[in-house]
């Protein structure tokens, strides 16, 4: 009887300590975009790698190749052109950006399609009212 009690106690202790929390898809995309918020993982900077407009690759200028955007874990972002704002992902593959208008401090909202996101690459698409589609390809910056 004592062996059964010890076996049950050890088994229950092991099972109670072996809990893992998994991220849902939305939070996983957020963490890939901006970091987990822990220790030195509070933001990610993404550098423009290529641009495709309506399926046709665009040749990037030297200035274009220097463009980068930093997404902070706290839901803010800034880019190398001097723009800043807020961001959120509320449903899978949809990035909501609120870009701050530097003239009057209001925000302009846009919704972009996340086509791909991983720990090293980030691709989103903007579809304009005239149905032109811009696919922006970014790579992570390790600087």
**Percentage of residues in strands:** 35-45%
Span from first to last CA? 62 Å
Total count of helical runs of at least 4 residues? 3
- Indicate the radius of gyration in whole angstroms: 21 Å
**Structural class of the secondary elements?**
alpha+beta
Order of helices and strands: HHEEHEEEEEEE
Query: What would the average pLDDT be, to the nearest integer?
Result: 88
Task: Name the CATH class.
Answer: Mainly Beta
Brief digest:
By secondary structure, the protein is α+β, with helices and mostly antiparallel strands.
Structure description:
The structure is a single chain. The protein has one domain (25-140): Domain of unknown function DUF4822 (Lipocalin), CATH 2.40.128.540. The protein is globular, with a radius of gyration of 21 Å. The longest helix is centred in the first third of the chain and has 16 residues, at 2-17. A hairpin with a 2-residue loop joins strand 1 (43-53) and strand 2 (56-58). It is of the alpha+beta class and 143 residues long. It has an eight-stranded antiparallel barrel with strand order 1-3-4-5-6-7-8-9. The protein is built from three helices and nine strands.
């Amino acid at each position: 009887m004592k062996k059964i009690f010890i076996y049950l106690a050890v088994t229950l202790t092991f099972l109670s300590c072996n809990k893992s929390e998994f991220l849902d898809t939305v939070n996983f995309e957020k963490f890939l975009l901006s970091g987990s918020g822990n220790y030195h993982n509070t933001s990610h900077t993404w550098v423009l790698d290529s641009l495709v407009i309506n399926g046709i690759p665009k040749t990037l200028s030297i200035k274009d190749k220097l463009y980068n955007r930093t997404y902070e874990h706290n839901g803010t972002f800034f880019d190398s052109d001097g723009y800043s704002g807020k961001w959120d992902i509320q449903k899978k593959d949809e990035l909501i950006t609120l870009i701050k208008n530097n003239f009057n401090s209001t925000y302009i909202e846009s919704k972009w399609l996340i086509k791909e996101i991983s720990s090293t690459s980030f691709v989103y698409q903007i579809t304009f009212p005239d149905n032109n589609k811009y696919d922006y390809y970014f790579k992570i910056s390790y600087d």
